[in-house]
Specification:
6-stranded parallel sheet, 7-stranded mixed sheet, 495 residues, 33% helix, 14 helices, alpha/beta, 21 strands
Length: 495
């Protein structure tokens, strides 16, 4: 009997990406196989949804509408909807799209295979939304997207009450994992060949509040530094409220913690930050930036910014531009405010006209583009070691260019060396050119360091020991994805 195939479509934040890895693991544990990219269609299509922005609904129902005729023409095909939008809308999804078979929430991901089977046997839609976490998600089987880089959750849920964000209602209160469980998972991943891990939480540096240790996150970073074979540690996303000096010290003093920080700003106006219930002000935010730069001079900083929050004046917006100029972010994820039913901000007076928001947004993007380019130009002439990436830049086969991530997480495209280099290996290059969103290393590769991660990638892809032309391993089958990068959507996982 041929195994049923599945396809996963993921929207939203880092937590959703990691949840999708668990959904894939559960389905494969239940006997499903991943559908090939060129397949006509999967037997099961699962949507892992986000509810942070207004267009989330439109994206989901647009996708569901496109699948309706395919499902009608394929008896036995199933569609499941999970994630934050499923937690929020519940039965409404089946009312609006009655061809959906399963709706499940953020707290009962582990029930997906059972719900699919029940819907198949009973021939009716199954809607199951748990109100609290049934089991910590990290106990579930996982099909990780990368052989050499991995997410590791330190907590789930959020204790904040930001007025623009619906996530705490959908993910619940923060629940921390025990430090020993986290470190055991990291050690197991390293044993499998993983080189880089990203510690993940809705507000990752709030870790410890549930277990009664305010310095737990800094201790966790230092403990990761003692794991042999773990070369790169990142984390996302911290909250400025919880960004303490001991975390900065741990970043600076732990060699495998990378010189990179993604810390959401949302607004530079202290008045608006109060309206957002962000629990820090402009001075506090810039003070953290100053301390980080003093301790880690080469750190690359990135952020999230919302434009057009209710009541935002031109003076408020100018305060945001001031912080952007002062902080000199390497990258900023910028969003136009999106009204979400159920949030306090949706009922606030002073909703900003669309054309005003758009004009401010364009000014912010233009300023950040200028700063990003200027900051990237400072990298020209530097020698950096890249973690060679799978997926990023691999479309550029005409120029035979490969890509990798520098320690500060900047994306670097480079000319392939003569000797084989695999995703997961390390390549040392000299930066020769800067663009606003990437760097180029057009000269010869200075060194290639083969790694256990490269070995793991090769095993996963059943790659030959050396490519036919004696050069770089291009055109090999790819199962997996680039190393995890922030996938922010203005809220969940990026608060």
């Amino acid at each position: 009997m041929t195994a049923k195939t599945y396809e996963l479509r993921t929207f939203g934040c880092q937590m959703n990406v990691h949840d999708s890895e668990r959904m894939a693991g559960l389905l494969e544990d239940a006997g499903y196989v991943r559908a090939a990219e060129d397949a006509d269609g999967a037997d099961v299509v699962v949507f892992n949804t986000c509810a942070v922005r207004e267009n989330a609904d439109n994206r989901l129902y647009g996708n569901l509408g496109q699948l309706a005729p395919k499902k009608a023409a394929r008896p036995g095909m199933q569609i499941a909807v999970g994630g934050c939008l499923a937690q929020k809308d519940r039965d409404a999804i089946v009312r609006r799209a009655p061809w959906v078979d399963v709706v499940f929430g953020t707290h009962n991901v582990g029930k997906l295979p059972v719900l699919l089977e029940r819907a198949r046997v009973q021939e009716e839609a199954q809607v199951e939304i748990a109100e609290s976490l049934e089991a910590f998600p990290s106990t579930l089987p996982t099909r990780r997207e990368s052989a050499y880089a991995a997410w590791v959750s330190v907590s789930v849920g959020c204790n904040n009450t930001c007025t623009f964000c619906i996530v705490p209602q959908l993910r619940g209160k923060e629940k921390d994992r025990r430090p020993g469980d986290i470190l055991a998972e990291v050690e197991a991943l390293v044993a499998e060949g993983v080189t880089e891990i990203t510690l993940l939480g809705q507000n990752v540096n709030a870790y410890g509040s549930d277990i009664g240790d305010r310095e737990a996150f800094g201790k966790l970073l230092r403990a990761c530094g003692r794991i042999e074979g773990l070369e790169r540690v990142r984390f996302t996303s911290p909250h400025p409220r919880d960004f303490t000096d001991d975390v900065i010290e741990a970043m600076a003093e732990t060699p495998n913690v990378m010189p990179q920080l993604h810390m959401p700003l949302q607004s530079g106006s202290s008045r608006l930050l109060r309206e957002m219930r962000r629990s820090y002000r402009q001075e506090r935010y810039l003070g953290i930036i100053e301390k980080v730069r003093a301790a880690i001079p080469d750190a690359a900083l990135s952020t999230d910014i919302i434009v057009g929050f209710p009541g935002e004046t031109e003076a408020d917006f100018q305060e945001t531009l001031h912080v952007v100029r002062e902080a000199r972010f390497a990258q900023a994820f910028t969003f136009q405010y999106s009204k979400r039913p159920g949030t306090p901000a949706a009922e606030m007076d002073g909703q900003i006209p669309k054309q005003v928001v758009q004009e401010r947004y364009e000014r912010l993007v233009a300023l950040q583009e200028e700063i990003s380019w200027s900051e990237n130009k400072k990298q020209v002439g530097r020698t950096v070691e890249l973690l060679v990436a799978e997926g990023e830049g691999r479309k550029d086969l005409a120029t035979r260019r490969l890509s990798g991530r520098a320690p500060d997480n900047r994306l670097v495209h480079f000319t392939p060396p003569e000797q084989p280099v695999r995703p997961g290996d390390m390549a040392t290059v000299e930066i020769s050119y800067a663009a606003p969103h990437h760097l180029l290393a057009e000269g010869p590769v200075l060194d290639v360091r083969t790694t256990r991660s490269g070995d793991a990638w090769e095993r996963r892809n059943a790659a030959p020991a050396s490519p036919p032309d004696g050069g770089v391993l291009l055109g090999l089958p790819t199962v997996g994805a680039p190393p995890p990068q922030p996938v922010t959507d203005g809220g969940c996982g990026s608060c």
